[in-house]
Amino acid sequence: MRFFSRNSPRCPVCARLSSDTVGGEQCGACLQSPPAFDASIVACDYAAPVDHLIQALKFHGRLAFAPLFADLLARVVHGQRGMVGQTEADLLTAVPLSATRLAVRGFNQASEIARSLSNRLHLPLASQLCIRVRDTSAQAGLPLKQRHVNMRGAFIVSPAAPSLSGKHVMVVDDVMTSGRTLHELAACLKRYGASRVTNLVVARTPAV
Ligand SMILES: [Zn+2]
């Protein structure tokens, strides 16, 4: 079934499909410029039919798809447990939306997926762990270099958050494209003491 990608040669760090990752080695991009996160687990490629389902969840409020995506991710996580140096995680969180975006959309699709996933993985969910302090909504229209600048300082850890010291945090998102958002969030979590960050992403776009 093409839907699942566990047998594809993905980089264990950024989950990019790559011919040079046979045997689970990191891709050249991660070796050259290591991201702040330690690993990425994706359920599938960002392609039909999943792209339509994600858009339906995100832009048309089809919240019933969130548990479906959580199921897909949980299966891949269980299948990969113990591989690529993963250790059991301490808590789960989701990539936050800015307050403005959240007010417009009414929900955070990543949080909806994370809530279902929390039950399936038996991991505590810290949905308010991080705050997006800058709206980076124009990200998609920017060239890659400007995206990097645009994302800097986009996140803080909530003052009410529990201590992250030495914790392995799993971060849920719906789509991973350049990986820059997840990098910035992981860098923020590590500044606050997290020892390891693993991304759990429903769908990965081809290399950008
Ligand atoms: Zn990589």
Task: List its salient traits.
208 residues; alpha/beta; Rossmann fold; four-stranded parallel β-sheet; two-stranded antiparallel sheet; 6 strands; disordered N terminus; binds zinc ion
SS-based class: alpha/beta
Any idea what the CATH architecture is?
A: 3-Layer(aba) Sandwich
The CATH class is identified as: Alpha Beta
Q: Give the overall average pLDDT.
A: 86
Low-confidence parts, pLDDT < 50 over ≥5 residues?
Answer: 1-6
What proportion strand? 15-25%
Bound compounds, each kind once, are:
zinc ion
Query: Tell me, what's the shape?
Result: globular
Helical segment tally? 7
SSE blueprint and pairings:
Elements: H1 28-32, E1 39-45, H2 50-60, H3 65-80, E2 91-94, H4 99-105, H5 109-121, E3 130-132, H6 144-151, E4 155-157, E5 168-176, H7 180-191, E6 196-204
Parallel strand pairs: 1-6, 2-5, 5-6
Antiparallel strand pairs: 3-4
Helix pairs in contact: 3-5
Bound molecules: zinc ion.
The site of zinc ion has 8 residues, from α1.
Detailed description of the structure:
With 208 residues, the protein is of the alpha/beta class. The protein has a single domain (19-204), classed as 3-Layer(aba) Sandwich (Rossmann fold), CATH 3.40.50. The chain has 7 helices and 6 strands. The chain has helices at residues 28-32, 50-60, 65-80, 99-105, 109-121, 144-151, 180-191, and strands at 39-45, 91-94, 130-132, 155-157, 168-176, 196-204. Strands 1-6-5-2 form a 4-stranded parallel β-sheet. The chain has a two-stranded antiparallel sheet with strand order 3-4. The chain is globular and about 40 Å long. The two termini are 25 Å apart. The model is unreliable at 1-6 (pLDDT under 50). Bound molecules: zinc ion. Zinc ion binds at residues 11, 13-14, 16, 26-27, 29-30. The site of zinc ion has 8 residues, from helix 1.
